[in-house]
Amino acid sequence: MIGKDIVSLEQFDKADIDKVLEVAAKMEKAVRSGENVNLLHRNIMASLFFEPSTRTRFSFEAAMERLGGSVLSTTGFTFSSISKGETLPDTIKTIERYADVIVMRHPEVGSAKIAADSAKIPFLNAGDGVGEHPTQALLDFYTIKKEKGNTHGLKIAMVGDLKNGRTIHSLVKLMTAYDGMEFCLVSPKELKIPAEYVELMKKNNVKFVETDNLDDVIAECDVFYMTRIQKERFAKEADYKKVKGCFVLDNEILKKAKKDMIIMHPLPRVDEIAVEVDADPRAKYFDQVENGLYVRMALLALVLKKA
Ligand code: NCD
């Protein structure tokens, strides 16, 4: 992966994914044992977040610091020359003169590809609008493997806004590289997964069902991946209000679930997982947050050729 960009999960085959997970596990071990991982000493990561972020930005920045590197960052368009009319390629061609790797989140689908094509240094997509969020999918999969071991035969429910949720899009792409997982796609009719992902699952002979009823799937699944209704992607407030609060996971519903099911969420949550669920040992969403650090350490080290 030396010198590579990470734009979409499409570019990863099973061997690449396994490699990332293997290095992430080493990073986890090192961080947990207090070992000094100085692999990226004197390297600089430019962190450009033109959309809101808490976990993705902090974990990327913490990852770079933990690897002994340092971070230059900007958030929002206001304080960047983009607000003066500079194009994205010009911004990227400027920033690469000061940094060794660029991480960017941007509201437009396809912006990650444009930026990656403009950059001579490695570029990592931290979310491009409703497109993809490849590093999140890798940390989600790391979490699933860590919690469940073998993924063959797992039934995975993906619930909520499957239309606009970029974490879902990347996770589906990732998981179709592996055999034997089944998907239960639960969403209101308006927020079904886009046709291209349905085609992809069919092409890869992935077993899946689509439903708008949680009760159809809750008792069977091994992994329950909840997502937020992506309010900011709706053109009309009224359309958002129609689907707001459509699924809420609480202790009552969880009584129907398997005892060893895991509950995941990329976060932030709004109202789709009741706070009472946090105390349930099946809740893994804050562990996902931590795993993001290890996976992003692995990715930075791999593209900068130090792992
Ligand atoms: C997600 C995102 O930004 O796509 N958050 C994240 O990166 N952990 C999910 C979301 O915003 O709902």
Main pleated-sheet profile: 5 strands, parallel
Second CATH tier, the architecture of the largest domain: 3-Layer(aba) Sandwich
Provide the domain count.
2
Estimated share of beta-strand residues: 5-15%
Extract low-pLDDT stretches: none
Q: What would CATH call the homologous superfamily of the largest domain?
A: Aspartate/ornithine carbamoyltransferase
Shape: globular
How much helical structure, as a percent, in the residues?
A: 25-40%
Estimated structural class: alpha/beta
Number of helical stretches of at least 4 residues = 10
Ligands, deduplicated? N-carbamoyl-L-aspartate
Report the CATH C-level class of the largest domain.
Answer: Alpha Beta
Q: What's the number of extended β-strand segments?
A: 9
Integer-rounded radius of gyration: 19 Å
